[in-house]
Design a protein that fits this description.
This protein is an alpha+beta fold and about 140 residues long. It is about 50% helix and about 20% strand. It contains 6 helices and 4 strands. Helix 4 packs across helix 5. About 10% of the residues are buried.
C-alpha cells in the first residue's frame, strides 16, 4: 500500500494554499475630454469621459483579453496608477502648498512635478506617495464630534 494522497486529497490541499494573483497595472492619464488607462504589459488602451467610465472600460477590455486568451480574470488583480499631474487634477482637494509643507519639500518643486515641467525621481515619487497614504490613514480616523 502506498502512502500517496488521492486526487481528492491533493485537490483539497491545493485549494487551501494561497493563490498568488497576478497584477495588471493601468496608468491613468488626464487627456483632453476625459481620461485614458494604459496597461503596457498587456497592450490595452481604454478611455472614458469620467474616471468611472475609464475604470469600467479598462476592466472590460482586460476581461475580453482574458476570454480571448482562455484565462480567468479572477486570477488577476487590477490596479490603477496615476502620474502626478493627473493625481492632482483628479483629487483637487489635495493642496500642493499644504502637501509640500507636510512633506517638508519645496512648494515650487512639487508644483513643477504637478504641472509636468519636471519629472520626480523614483525616490521623490515614493516620498510623495507615502505622505499621501499617511494623510489618508489619518483621515480614516477622523469623525465629527
Amino acid at each position: 500500500m502506498t502512502n500517496n494522497p488521492s486526487y481528492a486529497e491533493n485537490l483539497q490541499q491545493n485549494s487551501k494554499r494561497p493563490h498568488k494573483m497576478k497584477t495588471v497595472s493601468f496608468l491613468i492619464e488626464k487627456v483632453e475630454g476625459g481620461y485614458t488607462a494604459y496597461a503596457q504589459d498587456y497592450s490595452i488602451l481604454a478611455e472614458g469621459d469620467t474616471l468611472e467610465e475609464t475604470y469600467k472600460d479598462a476592466t472590460e477590455a482586460f476581461e475580453d483579453q482574458c476570454e480571448y486568451l482562455n484565462e480567468s480574470p479572477n486570477d488577476y488583480r487590477i490596479e490603477f496608477k496615476y502620474d502626478l499631474p493627473t493625481l492632482f487634477e483628479v483629487y483637487k482637494i489635495v493642496n500642493v502648498a499644504a502637501l509640500a509643507e507636510r512633506l517638508n519639500m519645496n512648494n515650487s518643486l512639487i508644483s513643477q512635478y504637478v504641472t509636468g515641467k519636471k519629472e520626480p525621481s523614483a525616490k521623490q515619487k515614493l516620498r510623495i506617495e507615502q505622505g499621501l497614504h499617511e494623510f489618508a490613514r489619518e483621515l480614516l480616523k477622523f469623525s465629527f464630534a
